[in-house]
């Protein structure tokens, strides 16, 4: 029935992009050191190449400078995020994070001298001094980064400059730089899907016609009093959405602050979804939108957001992000560094939530026609909270939740399993009878998601038009973000710290075994490779934690009282 239609629609959207492994080994042999030899260059569907850019064309490049004391940062995050530590909640300011991780004077000097020797002066840094963003003419950039060759790619009105060839750096810089951003990675496509299928039958009045804020609030036990005290998204859409769907609870009609460029063109469906739902579960909580649309090329919007995190001392406590790429398409240097950026945010008390992805366990072809599952990053970072997706068991009733078969989940091939989850994950692996063959996943890796929420059949207002049947973990993530923001609000009112990085507290709470803070989702499987061995099936939900829906979905009053401590 309906579910099959969705599956076809989603599979149709998963067409393979053009792939090209950068020939970094050859480039390095010719010129020096390649920081990202494993970075895949892929032209996503919809983009085409217009050819090489003029030497005078200005590019924006981001230099990730080698940090100090990353090991100490990691230990500190552990202490400030673990409820049984005496330092729980004793977060650092941006200045304190800078004092810990800022690059050494030797690194700062070496990088600056190198740039200046190429006539590059137009650079800005961030509060923690570990990124430099510079405007560089393409011709100069090609001399600075031997091997790189800059070409323009367009997709509709969007346009970026990228190098399909690997860049190298002089050997002397190997100890000073992690990677250079703005060369290979394309802006990730945002994938909110409107599943257009119609409900055939006449509906009873107790039925709901799709997920609205009222449905979310009912399912997760938020009363009209559970509100806060204290993007490319068009303000008109949010007001209209709240006018249509937000009648019974106090809420803001506008986003309070936009960081970056606020374009006024067509709002993305996805941006509308994020803001409308974070502001309905996190009702009356001040909401900011980080926007990177607009101006010619924002080279790497995700990187830009990371830079903002390191450059503003006062930021929202909760961030929800729906960006994700296949782990195997990204360089290890890039992922390791982004992971450190999440540690820096955790040290400051921020809760960073990522959508787990909309491709189930994913699928990747490896040698000999074999397949493996395909983890997604940053969902697989051990320093973020990853949110999966569920559906109502009865599609039109506020009822128990089951797995949404698109819910991203699995095991990282890059990040080892963090301590906070080993008991839970090992229990899953040892008690589940029908696991996929072990060649499909890496049971030593960071397992995700951590929790879940409804991801199916949302109403969204976009460009002033209400759209039904919008689905994806980019819907469930802001819902959980809003709930965490409400809990932070209560904690702050009581003079407590914000929650910060959630996972240690979340796993500890759930491992007690008698927690009612989350509804355990125990039925349904997500999908994976359509081959003979697994036949489209990835992992299946099970009692307690599982790599499909994590610990389950929020029951607000119980989660609140557990996390108020
Ligand atoms: C960081 O913030 C300062 C002002 O506070 C600004 O001048 C600078 O351009 C910002 N850096 C980046 C990389 O955006
Ligand atoms: C939350 O809602 C469910 C039904 O949706 C109900 O069974 C439960 O008692 C409610 N309250 C709490 C505190 O769990
Ligand atoms: C909503 O937030 C505002 C501050 O932004 C506060 O003055 C107001 O009391 C809040 N409303 C409720 C119902 O708590
Ligand atoms: C499995 O994950 C670990 C990290 O937990 C990693 O070191 C190892 O290389 C991974 N194996 C494969 C085959 O990717
Ligand atoms: C759950 O169990 C712990 C001990 O493992 C106990 O301290 C706590 O009071 C119990 N909570 C509830 C709600 O029963």
TrEMBL record:
List, in alphabetical order, the Gene Ontology terms for molecular function in this entry: lysophosphatidic acid binding; metal ion binding; serine-type endopeptidase activity; sulfatide binding; tripeptidyl-peptidase activity
The EC number(s) given in the record are 3.4.14.9
Q: Which Pfam families match?
A: Peptidase_S8, Pro-kuma_activ
Q: Which GO terms describe its biological process?
A: bone resorption; central nervous system development; epithelial cell differentiation; lysosomal protein catabolic process; lysosome organization; neuromuscular process controlling balance; peptide catabolic process; protein localization to chromosome, telomeric region
Keyword DNA repair among UniProt keywords: no
Query: Is Nucleotidyltransferase one of the keywords UniProt gives this record?
Result: no
* Residues at the active site: 270 (charge relay system), 274 (charge relay system), 474 (charge relay system)
Matching InterPro entries: Peptidase_S8/S53_dom (IPR000209), Peptidase_S8/S53_dom_sf (IPR036852), S53_propep (IPR015366), Sedolisin_dom (IPR030400), Tripeptidyl-peptidase_I (IPR050819)
Domain Peptidase S53 intervals:
197-565
Q: To which species is this protein native? A: Podarcis muralis
**Main role?**
Lysosomal serine protease with tripeptidyl-peptidase I activity. May act as a non-specific lysosomal peptidase which generates tripeptides from the breakdown products produced by lysosomal proteinases. Requires substrates with an unsubstituted N-terminus.
Gene3D superfamilies named in the record:
Peptidase S8/S53 domain
- EC top class, as a word: hydrolase
Please list which residues make up the signal peptide: 1-28
Which prosthetic group or cofactor does it need? Ca(2+)
Q: Which domain of life is it from?
A: Eukaryota
Query: Which reaction(s) does its UniProt entry say it catalyses?
Result: Release of an N-terminal tripeptide from a polypeptide, but also has endopeptidase activity
- UniProt keyword annotations, A-Z: Autocatalytic cleavage, Calcium, Disulfide bond, Glycoprotein, Hydrolase, Lysosome, Metal-binding, Protease, Serine protease, Signal, Zymogen
**PROSITE patterns in alphabetical order:** SEDOLISIN
| GO CC, any one term | Golgi apparatus
**What is this protein called in UniProt?**
Tripeptidyl-peptidase 1
Q: Where in the cell is it found?
A: Lysosome
């Amino acid at each position: 029935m309906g579910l099959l239609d969705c599956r076809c629609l989603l599979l149709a959207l998963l067409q393979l992009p053009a792939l090209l492994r950068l020939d970094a080994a050859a480039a390095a042999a010719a010129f020096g050191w390649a920081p990202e030899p494993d970075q895949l260059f892929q032209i996503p569907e919809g983009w085409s190449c217009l050819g090489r850019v003029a030497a005078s064309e200005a590019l924006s490049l981001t230099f990730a400078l080698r940090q100090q004391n990353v090991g100490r940062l990691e230990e500190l995050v552990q202490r400030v995020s673990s409820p049984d530590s005496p330092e729980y909640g004793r977060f650092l300011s941006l200045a304190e994070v800078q004092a810990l991780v800022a690059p050494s004077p030797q690194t700062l000097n070496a990088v600056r001298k190198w740039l200046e020797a190429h006539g590059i002066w137009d650079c800005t840094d961030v509060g923690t001094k570990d990124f430099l963003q510079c405007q560089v003419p393409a011709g100069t950039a090609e001399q600075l980064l031997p091997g790189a060759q800059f070409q323009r790619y367009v997709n509709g009105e969007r346009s970026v400059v990228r190098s399909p060839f690997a860049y190298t750096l002089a050997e002397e810089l190997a100890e000073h730089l992690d990677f250079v951003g703005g060369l290979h990675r394309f802006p990730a496509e945002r994938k909110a899907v409107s599943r257009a299928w119609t409900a055939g039958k006449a509906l009873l009045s107790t039925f709901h016609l799709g997920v609205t804020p009222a449905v979310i609030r009912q399912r997760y036990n938020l009363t009209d009093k559970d509100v806060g005290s204290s993007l490319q998204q068009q303000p008109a859409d949010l007001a209209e959405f709240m006018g249509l769907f937000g009648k019974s609870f106090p809420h803001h009609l506008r986003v309070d602050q936009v960081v970056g460029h606020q374009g006024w063109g067509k709002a993305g469906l996805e941006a509308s979804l994020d803001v409308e739902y974070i502001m309905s579960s996190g009702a009356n909580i001040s909401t900011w939108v980080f926007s990177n649309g607009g101006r010619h090329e924002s080279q790497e919007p995700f990187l830009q957001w990371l830079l903002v995190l390191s450059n503003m001392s006062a930021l929202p406590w909760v961030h929800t992000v729906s960006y994700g790429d296949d782990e195997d398409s990204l360089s290890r240097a890039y992922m390791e560094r982004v992971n450190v950026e999440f540690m820096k945010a955790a040290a400051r008390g921020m809760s960073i939530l990522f959508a787990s992805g909309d491709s189930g366990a994913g699928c990747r072809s490896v040698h000999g026609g074999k397949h493996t599952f395909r983890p997604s990053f940053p969902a697989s970072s051990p320093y973020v909270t990853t949110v999966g997706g569920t559906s109502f068991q009865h599609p039109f009733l506020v009822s128990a939740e089951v797995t949404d078969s698109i819910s991203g989940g699995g095991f990282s091939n890059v990040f080892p399993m963090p301590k906070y989850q080993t008991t839970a994950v090992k229990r899953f692996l040892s008690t589940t009878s029908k696991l996929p063959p072990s060649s499909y996943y890496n049971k030593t890796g960071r397992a995700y998601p951590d929790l879940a929420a409804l991801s199916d059949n949302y109403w969204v207002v976009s460009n002033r038009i209400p759209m039904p049947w919008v689905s994806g973990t980019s819907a469930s993530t802001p819902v959980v973000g809003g709930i965490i923001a409400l809990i932070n609000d209560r904690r702050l009112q009581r003079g407590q710290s914000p929650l910060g990085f959630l996972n240690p507290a979340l796993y500890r709470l759930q491992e007690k075994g008698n927690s009612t803070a989350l509804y355990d989702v125990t039925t349904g499987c997500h999908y994976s490779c359509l081959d003979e061995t697994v036949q489209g099936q990835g992992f299946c939900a099970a009692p307690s934690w599982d790599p499909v829906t994590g610990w389950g979905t929020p029951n607000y009053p119980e989660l609140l009282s557990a996390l108020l401590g």
